[in-house]
Amino acid sequence: MPTALTLNLAPVTLNAPDDKPLLWALREDANLVGTKFGCGIAACGACTVQVDGVAMRSCSVPLSFVAGKQVTTIEGITAIGPNAVQKAWIEHQVPQCGYCQSGFIMATTALLEKTPDPTDADIDAAITNLCRCGTYPAMRLAIKKAAQLKKAGG
Amino acid sequence: MAKFVKTKRAFLIGTGIVGGALVLGTTLAWRRVANAQNFKPPVKDGETAFNAWLKIMPDSTVVVQVPRQDMGQGIYTTLAMLVAEELDADWGKVRAEQSQINPVYGNIVALGDSAPPPMKSAMLAMARVIGLQLTGGSTSVRDGWEPMRTAAASARAMLLGAAAAKWNVPVTELTIEKSIVKHAASGKSAPFGEFAQAAATLTPPSSVTVKAPKDWKLLGTSPARLDVVEKTLGKAQFGIDVRLDGMLYATVKHIPYVSGHLQEVRWKNGTPPRDALHLARGDNWLAVVATSYWSAKKALDEAELVGGGDTGTVLSSEQLAAQYNEVLDGKNDGVLDAGVAHLKPLRRTFGEHGNAEKAIASATTAQRIDAAYSVPFQAHAPMEPMNCTVRIAGEGKDGKVDVWVGNQAPTVLQWLAAGNVGVPSENVTIHTPYLGGGFGRRVDLEVIRQALACAKLTGGKPVQLIWSREEDIAHDAYRPAISARMSAALDDKGGLLAWHHRMVGPSVSKSVFARMNPLAAGDFPPDVTNAEGAAHLPYALAHFKCDHAQVDLPVPLGFWRSVGNSYNAFFVETFIDEIAVALKKDPYLFRLELLKDQPRFARVVDAAASAAGWSSALPKGWGRGIALAESFKSIVCQVVDVEVVGKDIKVRRVVSAVDCGTALHPVNVKAQISSAAIYGITAALKSQITLKDGQVQQRNFDTFPLLKMAECPQFETVIVNSGAALGGIGEVGVPPIAPALGNAIFAATGKRLRGLPFVL
Question: B645 with B745: CB under 8 angstroms?
């Protein structure tokens, strides 16, 4: 059954089964491959997108769940950005292999919307994605820098 | 063809006189460059190719040909820096492009490193002939160091020659600054791209000199990585992101056991679901091709794979540990029971001086120290699941095969695809995008064989095969489980007299090569990775011996970030710590004592201890540990501060000192050291692979957890630029982290943990 939603600010209809995970609908049906498959069980966060502004792990969200909702992917952020998080990421040269980074950027973007000035504890609690390259040290600095940039209007 | 044969002969003659002298090194590099002058990469958009290594565009953009794969280690950037430095190019106008497959790009150093010392020169000669492109062994910069800089210096001379001819000025009066050719006397200046076409028609110089380190402008600084922007914007393409017209998707399931054969497929409803367009079957796997990964996965979930074998179906980690102990006891040199290991252990001595066995046997009980250690199997678990996309068009000599896959050895893939499909290898194109992590995982060819099998069924439609994470964790080619026994004897003055390292485990190289080509699986030459980090130690030891008992296991094995060093450093550096404790000596000062004739090592240990404030006080419940390891020609010392709360081990701080000769991109060197340490901390504290009844018990990140942001310690890394020959950097931060952490736990708790992962 076709599912109508707003994807990166544009209305779209995706022709895919209702129970198809949003991740695969994005990658296969909407041809948006910036959202990554990492584990399929919502454990790694590589597939993080925003649904009505809330960070969600798209591998474990059925397409039917986002009917009529606003879905934002890394492509949507980039199209109007780069946003403060991405600027800070570039400044701190965060990515290594880069595969998990879209998910971290989406999760951080959502965190800063709710918590503009996150403490280390806020970061630890909210950013539970996995990075096998271990970019966490640079990432923590970048998250704090992104908070500054965002407050300054970046 | 005649030309190629001649070139090969030239290389063979060249290697016959390997003597290690600097001039000769340049000569060998020059031979690679001379060969590289004859191979020009394909050009587009007005590019001019100078040689195999670089192209220049009319707008002066330098397009560096990179034959190594970027899996996060930043190699596109560092190799491009080698070229940009010699060209004095503007870093903002440098790009890296994955090169084609050609013997000129072979990784000579990697193959040389793989050979035991007596066979090294023969292996180097062979490496030059085969020209195998592979990324591993932390060799990329060491291998590219001479040919890439020399190729760029040659192009620079040609650019200046063309400018001198056009301006009618002496070439010696020309300089280049940020891609601009300048003639100070006349005030003339122009971007070097303007001279590229004319320059490329000139005869390459017969010799060039590369810059001395004091003249470097780029190397030793940390310019922006070439891949960071696209990776941050979500635009970087990984293998799994390939999208082709009419592409189908596939996924695979293996039999539940680590070895054995697929005997029967039982479908839930008797027949495959309609969504399964095609089924491909291999020795121990079944793949479903469908219009979507999701529907392929759902279809495959309905299949039960029945199969196994005598050996793989009974193996458990406990039983293996018991068998290992029997081998270490010197028993069971016949056929081992329960099919755990089929062959008589192959016992080899990888390093020896003095007579360690005699010295230890004659030591008194009070003078003798013994300890037993073990490490489990480990999975690589790169974040990008295994995947491969294949398109087959036509067949026979007219057939064409395109393969898109994140891989660490494109030359081997080309051979494999050509042989597998039955087309000439020049008709096979390997497209290598960014790798979503490698760590040795993407040397394995199984996913490529499976994707080829699927693509043969689709009448020319491309197929993207993706493994689920469950298949990746349960069917990896693992870092092996290893057990070791260490013995030491002290002298009458309380000094360390003798050292005997004995261990048992399989050969990773043998397993890797057997899966590439069964004919290549042998016990000769000895697998140097078995004992790397154990066969030669920097410490002063009057009597030393390192023995290895090699057994064959029915478990696929693979090169796992730092390979043998990953476990040998744990054995060696924990044991050194135990000896220091037995002698009531400070572990840092004890190491320095044993390094009195090794100033390069001592300097690294001092740098780490000093940066960490070795003697500074720690809060109650905390402990501090130190460990040192040389791997891939680099030396790393790490000091770890740990906090232990009940059974909870919290790594608080990791201070590293690294001497990789010269840090060419210091920011990336530091990033790689912390990256590798985090990889090692995950293996030391969080995850392991265990076997029960022939099955891997872990399936996904719930049962194979990785270190998270909240658990990540603080990192500080000190770079010691000794100016020694270059070492690797992508793996060298792994080996010392587990022993440094274990030694810190001992300092905090008084408990000596001798197996990984650490559990209090």
Answer: no
Which amino acid is located at B735 in the chain? P
Please, which pLDDT band fits residue B123 given cuts at 50, 70 and 90? confident
Spatial CB neighbours of A26, under 8 Å, sequence gap ≥ 6: A7, A32, A35, A49, A58, A71, A73
Looking at the fold, whether A7 and A67 belong to one and the same domain comes out as yes
| Token digits of residue B708 | 């998270």
CATH, residue A115: 1.10.150.120
**Number of neighbours of residue A76 by Cβ within 10 angstroms:** 22
Determine the distance in angstroms separating the CA of B294 from the nearest CA of chain A, rounded to an integer: 7
- Residue B735 CA to residue B658 CA, distance in Å, equals 12
| Cα B397 to Cα B383, B424, B600, B664, distances in angstroms | 38, 6, 56, 45
Q: What are phi and psi of B465, to 5 degrees?
A: -95, 130
A36, B384: Cβ pair inside 8 Å? yes
Q: Number of A:B CB contacts under 8 A?
A: 173
Proportion of chain B above pLDDT 70, given as a percent:
93
Q: pLDDT of B128-177, one tens digit each?
A: 878 889 999 999 999 999 999 999 999 999 999 999 999 999 999 999 99
pLDDT one-digit tens code per residue, B321-364: 998 999 999 876 654 554 554 557 899 999 999 999 999 999 99
Spelled out in words, what is the top-level CATH class assigned to the domain B2-225?
alpha beta
Above 0.95 for ipTM, yes or no? yes
Residues B583 and B574: their CA atoms lie apart, in Å, by 14
Sheet holding B180-183, edge to edge: B174-177, B180-183, B188-191
Tens of pLDDT, residue by residue over B50-68, are 999 999 999 999 999 999 9
Name the domain count of chain A: 2
Per-residue confidence (pLDDT) for residue A154, from 0 to 100: 67
In a shared domain, residues A55 and A88: no
Which positions in chain B touch A132 (Cβ < 8 Å)?
A: 381-383, 437, 439, 679, 706
Run of H or E residues at B264: strand B261-267
A111, A128: one domain: yes
Residue in A40, A75, A98 closest to B227 by CB: A98
List pLDDT tens digits, range B206-234.
889 999 999 999 999 999 999 999 999 99
CATH for B239-309+386-466 is: 3.30.365.10
* φ and ψ at residue B543, rounded to 5 degrees: -130, 130
Kindly indicate the confidence band of residue B17, based on its pLDDT and cuts at 50, 70 and 90: very low
Provide CATH code, domain B317-379+477-749: 3.30.365.10
- CA pair distance B27, B14, nearest whole angstrom: 8
Chain A partners of B675 at a C-beta cutoff of 8 Å? 96, 133-135
Q: Which of A133, A139, A144 is the best mutation test for B, with the most CBs of B within 10 A?
A: A133
Nearest chain B residue to A83 by CA: give it: B233
Q: What are the residues whose beta carbons fall under 8 Å from the beta carbon of A141, sequence distance 6 or more? A: A92
pLDDT at B29: 52
Share of chain B above pLDDT 90, in %: 83
Average pLDDT value for residue range A126-134: 98
Alpha carbon distance B468, B298 (integer Å): 12
Same domain? For A9 and A73 the reply is: yes
pLDDT mean over A31-49: 98
We report the CATH number of the domain holding residue A38 as 3.10.20.30
Comparing A16-25, B311-320, B344-353, B675-684, the range with the smallest average pLDDT is: B311-320
Chain B interface mutation, best of A75, A102, A132, highest count of B Cβ atoms under 10 Å: A132
- Closest Cα in chain B, distance from residue A82 (Å): 7
Whether residues B436 and A36 touch (CB distance < 8 A) is answered with yes
User: By C-alpha distance, which of B492, B452, B78 is closest to B289?
Assistant: B452
